[in-house]
Specification:
- The complex is a heterodimer.
- By secondary structure, chain A is of the alpha+beta class.
- Chain A is built from 6 helices and 10 strands, in the order αβααβαββαββαββββ.
- Chain A folds into 2 domains: 9-108, no CATH class; 125-209.
- Chain A has helices at 9-23, 40-53, 60-67, 80-83, 100-108, 148-164; strands spanning 29-35, 71-74, 88-89, 93-99, 125-128, 135-142, 171-179, 183-184, 193-199, 202-209.
- In chain A, the strands form 2 sheets. In chain A, strands 5, 6, 7, 8, 9 and 10 form a 6-stranded mixed beta sheet that branches. In chain A, strands 2-1-4-3 form a 4-stranded mixed beta sheet, with helices on both faces.
- The model of chain A has no long low-confidence stretch (mean pLDDT 79).
- Chain B is 50% helix and 9% strand.
- In chain B, strands 2-1-6-7 form a 4-stranded parallel beta sheet, with helices on both faces. In chain B, strands 3-4-5 form a 3-stranded antiparallel beta sheet, covered by helices on one side.
- The radius of gyration of chain B is 21 Å and the shape is globular.
- Classes of the chains: A alpha+beta, B alpha/beta.
- At the A-B interface, helix 4 of A face loops of B.
Chain lengths: 210, 367
């Protein structure tokens, strides 16, 4: 006999939002990230939570086409009016999919675009995803090529694409590293994820297995 | 009851326009009527407005384009036209230049020579219309530092601070339906909301009630200020007023369009009348005839007729200065929302069935 669980209103609302997102697959959606503090350690798990629960396989093409055009807003995801709207959230960053201008305006009318300085995350940051690690990956970015804003877009794109393609299954840790030199794409790197190809054979950011 | 009126300021960059006159006269009337009922303080400190970017950018423009200029012979119109040109040119002073002005204003009440000249002209205008010049021209040190204000906002849980990451500082009252409001820029410069809070937040604690008087173009910011003050127990009420359309449009002073209707020019056109008639006529025109809620457009001929009628009324009333009325008389002007109904005050002065004693008391109080 199954025991009844206490009613969890936030969870129920979140499940409803996820169901809505799935039901509206194929329609034009936009991803909003509401950022209070940018910490890779909470940003990356939040992104993966969104992808795992709100973006199903049949939405993958939508994600690649539209959702990666993520809109970054300044805000505190802990605020009451926001909490129920997120598909994934942590103390520093919340994620949601919105459909149409009305949904978008409800949030963006109150929250301005994210405007952080040019200070990029520290070198060799590491985000642990799973204790039982089969392998680790690294995101390598050419330091001279990025502002904070474009870095955010690049890593969101790289990680989301790899996640949807199943390339992060079983991954234990994601390392974030900076390269002071342009990143040459060697033949050994075939299969890596690349963001922002600078020129033939050179990339601004890559994701690859360590 | 101890009451504080904290009116919005005017940056010393332009001549007083019809809208400025209306705002100044409204505060003046509120204070004078309320003083008959309560212990009233009008706190107007120039410093939040002198330190504002609008002012310091203009000073930067002047010092860049007119170095070592003698401002003593400038008129409010000529300075105002420079202000219009500065805005049309989208001039931006360097960060160092702005920092120099703001630290000077903050620490010692520095005033650029152009602003000193403008304030001298304003004082002359106020003296001609029975308004205490101190209501708009005094400059006092801030009660509090910007960091203390930020600290208090943080304690209240309404500060969203991204300065540590190279971002800005915001007041976050989004749970109450207000948009996130930036108050400190990425370069560390605080805006006028912080300056107002530095100026009145602590001061307001010692009053039973604080009235925020402002023009409705900054309504959102004053709703925010009211909420912040209330969170620390300050009994607070907003008193918005609307700007006066001139030639069918409500323009910002920086866009120009005020020539012919500045306070100085209006006073020249009314010089045939006594100071008392001008003082009363301006109040009757700007606060009564134009309507308080949605003022109709400015009309110089109507103003002239109103001052003319005021001159006649003052002649009929004779010695209006020495008429005293009981407290109950003044209390009738207190509204249910605890405001002062200035429109009612002025409608009694214009009314036909009001006694000469009552009219005299009201006129004597206002001018």
């Amino acid at each position: 006999m199954t025991s009844l669980q206490p009613y969890d209103a936030p969870l129920a609302r979140r499940m409803l939002r996820v169901a809505e997102a799935q039901g509206r697959a194929g329609s034009s959606a936009l991803c909003l990230a509401v950022v209070h503090r940018f910490e890779l350690s909470s940003y990356v798990p939040g992104l993966f939570e969104l992808l795992r629960y709100a973006v199903k396989a049949n939405m993958a093409q939508d994600w690649l086409a539209n959702f990666t055009k993520t809109l970054f807003l300044t805000g505190n995801p802990q605020r009451t009016w926001l909490q129920d709207q997120f598909h994934a959230s942590g103390p520093d960053c919340g994620w949601m999919l919105v459909y149409g201008d009305r949904d978008l305006n409800r949030v963006s009318a109150k929250l301005p675009p994210l405007l952080l300085g040019e200070a990029l995350p520290a070198q060799d940051s590491c985000v642990a995803l799973s204790a039982s690690s089969l392998r680790d990956v690294e995101v390598l970015a050419h330091a001279g090529q990025f502002s904070f804003q474009s870095y955010l877009v690049a890593i969101t794109h790289l990680l989301a694409e790899a996640f949807i393609a199943g390339e992060l299954d079983g991954v234990g840790k994601v390392y974030f590293r900076w390269s002071v030199e342009p990143i040459l794409i060697a033949s050994a790197d075939l299969g890596v994820r690349i963001a922002q190809v600078a020129e033939v054979g050179v990339a601004d950011a890559v994701l690859r297995y360590r | 009851m101890k009451v504080l009126y904290a009116p919005v300021g005017i940056t010393p960059t332009k001549p007083l326009t019809a809208s400025h006159l209306r705002g100044v006269l409204l505060v003046d009337a509120m204070q004078k009527i309320r003083s008959r009922i309560d212990d009233v303080t009008v706190w107007h400190n120039r410093r939040p407005w002198d330190i504002s970017l609008q002012t310091t950018q203009f000073w930067g423009y002047l010092d860049t384009h007119f170095p070592d200029h003698d401002y003593s012979s400038e008129t409010d119109i000529s300075l105002g036209m420079k202000y219009v040109r500065a805005n049309a040119a989208s001039f931006e002073a360097s960060a160092e230049m702005l920092q120099g002005y703001t630290s000077g204003v903050d620490s010692s009440g520095y005033l650029h020579p152009s602003a000193q000249r403008m304030l001298t002209i304003w004082r002359d205008v106020f003296s001609s219309i029975s308004v205490d010049p101190d209501i708009i021209t005094r400059s006092d040190a801030f009660e509090d530092s910007a960091e203390n204000v930020m600290g208090r906002l943080d304690k209240l849980g309404i500060l969203l601070d991204q300065r540590g990451q190279g971002g800005c500082g915001y007041i976050d009252l989004t749970d109450e339906g207000l948009p996130l409001r930036k108050i400190v820029d990425a370069d560390g410069s605080a805006n006028y909301i912080v300056a107002i809070l530095r100026d009145i937040w602590m001061r307001a604690q010692s009053f039973d009630k604080t009235f925020l008087v402002y023009d409705s173009s900054v309504e959102r910011d004053y709703i925010l200020l009211e909420r912040v003050l209330r969170l620390t127990g300050v009994e607070c009420q907003r008193c918005p007023f609307k700007r006066v359309p001139v030639n069918g449009a409500v323009l910002s002073s920086r866009e120009g369009g005020w020539k012919g209707t500045t306070a100085g020019e209006l006073l020249v056109k009314l010089r045939e009348f006594s100071v008392a008639a001008i003082s009363l006529g301006l109040r009757m025109y700007f606060l009564y005839q134009l309507g308080l809620r949605n003022p109709t457009g400015f009309d110089a001929a109507q103003l002239h007729r109103q001052v003319e009628a005021s001159e006649k009324l003052i002649g009929e009333l004779g010695n209006y200065c020495n008429v005293e009325m009981p407290l109950a008389f003044w209390q009738q002007f207190r509204t249910r929302s605890d405001d002062i109904d200035i429109y009612r005050v002025l409608s009694m002065i214009a009314g036909k069935k009001v006694s000469a004693a009552e009219k005299s008391a009201l006129v004597g109080c206002l001018i």
